[in-house]
Design goal:
The protein has about 170 residues and is of the alpha/beta class. The chain has five helices and eleven strands; from the N terminus they run βαβαβαββαβαβββββ.
Length: about 170
């Protein structure tokens, strides 16, 4: 990341439809933080390629580093991928709720953008007990692997469709 004080940096979580990067280009955003997207790291792979194609510089962070970025006042807006939406909120990739709460607490807008693909409700235990095919947790350790969660409307600033914005 550059040291320019006028940076406009967005934090993106989930595998959003790649048209989001066209929206960010129009907003003059040239730098973004991408959360890695555990357990499969799919967000890291897909979003990095999509942003680089549009000359937007991605900085990849571990999912649990987001709070530190808010604390350092480095996040100016949050973009969460969503797969279902109603008047009460949205189903987003896991981790979306904590980012929405952090955005609310730090007065940073939280925008929703459609996902590029549906995420199953639950992952496999091996998704968190193993890393790159190697078991990292001792035997007899259990795993809980929800992959989506509900984000209440009160934390959402604006919702976008692939064709424009909604409120």
């Amino acid at each position: 990341m550059s040291t320019n004080k006028k940076r406009y940096i967005a934090l993106i979580q989930g595998v959003v439809n790649d048209t989001l990067f066209d929206v960010l280009k129009k907003r003059k955003s040239t730098e973004i933080y991408i959360l890695e997207g555990r357990p499969k790291l799919k967000a890291a792979k897909v979003l990095s390629k999509s942003s680089l194609k549009r000359k937007i510089v991605p900085t990849l962070i571990a999912d649990n580093m987001a709070g530190f970025l808010f604390y350092k006042n480095l996040v100016k807006e949050v973009w969460l991928s969503y797969q279902l939406l109603d008047k009460n909120g949205a189903v987003c990739d896991i981790g979306g709720l904590i980012l929405a709460v952090l955005g609310h607490k730090h007065k940073v807008p939280v925008y929703l953008y459609p996902t590029a693909e549906k995420t199953p409700l639950m992952g496999k235990k091996s998704d968190v007990l193993n890393f790159n095919g190697v078991r990292v947790a001792p035997r007899n350790v259990n795993a809980y692997v929800p992959l989506v969660e509900w984000v209440p409307r009160k934390y959402i600033s604006k919702t976008y469709s692939v064709h424009g914005s909604k409120n």
